[in-house]
């Protein structure tokens, strides 16, 4: 998920980084510190540079605290944050290069700010403040939702969970949303083709399941629309004076 950022940072092996390989992660951290972040002086990087040390993870955790990294549950989230910090510092070091891009974004922001409602409290929230981020992380932990390095994506996941599992109907009838039965073996299914790379194959399986879920939701909505139309058309008004159902000409019967 961070390869495009590494490409933007001109990391030579940006397309070969394996987030699950400890050696890859260690080398990446060293490159970020030596080339982009530069939190420590050269002499103070010796512990971090010793990737063969059994205590390297301890030095890494200290390094994260020194650069101000928030607490994350997974190693990949920490690496994602470090890469984001490197991108931020790279932008600051080359501000003039991106000045024209920033100028256009500023114009768009000014337009958006000019139409923000003063009566809607949501428009006055600072979505980048530490209090807002802490609130999202607390909510995610309460709902047992994994935290994404981007707090807004975590918020979106919380929103989807609440809308589907904690809506009024679900609260009134919890059994309707409780998953029952044996978990579906997603990783054992076949998508009908082989992409050679196991990671890509697993991603394809997940995307195919999500696509099927979207189709099911669409079919459910179609069925609901059909039922609503049938309720209207199957209950026509009756004119008792004509002695028949519906609207039509009054026929004379002998």
Which assembly state applies to the chains in this document?
A: single chain
Q: What structural category arises from helix and sheet content?
A: mainly alpha
What is the total tally of β strands? Answer: 2
Helix content: 55-70%
Estimated radius of gyration: 28 Å
Largest sheet: 2 strands, antiparallel
Q: Name the overall outline.
A: elongated
Count of separate DSSP helical elements: 10
Protein name: UPF0568 protein C14orf166 homolog
InterPro entries: RTRAF (IPR019265)
Give an overview in words.
The C terminus is likely disordered. The longest helix is centred in the last third of the chain and has 36 residues. A two-stranded antiparallel sheet has the order 1-2. The chain is mostly helical and 254 residues long. It folds into 3 domains: 115 residues, no CATH class; 55 residues; 33 residues.
Element layout with pairings:
Layout: H1 3-8, H2 22-37, H3 46-49, H4 56-67, H5 75-93, H6 99-114, H7 130-142, H8 151-165, H9 168-172, H10 198-233, E1 238-239, E2 244-245
Organism: Ceratosolen solmsi marchali
Protein name: UPF0568 protein C14orf166 homolog
InterPro entries: RTRAF (IPR019265)
Question: What attributes characterize this protein structure?
Answer:
2% strand; 10 helices; elongated; UPF0568 protein C14orf166 homolog; RTRAF; 254 residues; 56% helix; mainly alpha; two-stranded antiparallel sheet
């Amino acid at each position: 998920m961070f390869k495009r950022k590494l490409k933007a940072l001109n990391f030579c092996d940006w397309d070969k980084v394996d987030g699950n390989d400890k050696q890859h992660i260690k080398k990446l951290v060293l490159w970020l510190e030596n080339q982009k972040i530069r939190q420590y002086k050269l002499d103070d990087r010796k512990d971090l540079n010793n990737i063969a040390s059994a205590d390297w993870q301890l030095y890494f955790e200290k390094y994260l605290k020194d650069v101000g990294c928030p607490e994350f549950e997974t190693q990949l989230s920490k690496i994602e944050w470090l890469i984001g910090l490197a991108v931020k510092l790279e932008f600051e070091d080359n501000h003039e290069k991106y000045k024209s891009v920033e100028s256009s974004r500023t114009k768009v922001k000014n337009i958006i700010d000019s139409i923000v409602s003063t009566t809607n409290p949501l428009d006055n929230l600072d979505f980048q403040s530490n209090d807002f981020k802490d609130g999202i992380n607390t909510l995610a932990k309460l709902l047992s939702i994994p935290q994404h390095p981007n707090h807004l994506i975590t918020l979106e996941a919380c929103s989807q969970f609440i809308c589907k599992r904690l809506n009024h109907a679900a609260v009134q009838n919890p059994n309707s949303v409780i998953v029952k039965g044996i978990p579906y073996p997603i990783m054992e299914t076949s998508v009908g083709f082989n992409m050679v790379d196991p990671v890509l194959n697993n991603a394809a399986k997940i995307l195919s399941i999500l696509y099927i879920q979207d189709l099911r939701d669409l079919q459910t909505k179609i069925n609901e629309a059909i039922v609503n139309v049938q309720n209207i058309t199957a209950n026509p008004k009756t004119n008792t004076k004509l002695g028949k159902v519906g609207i039509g000409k009054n026929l004379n019967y002998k």
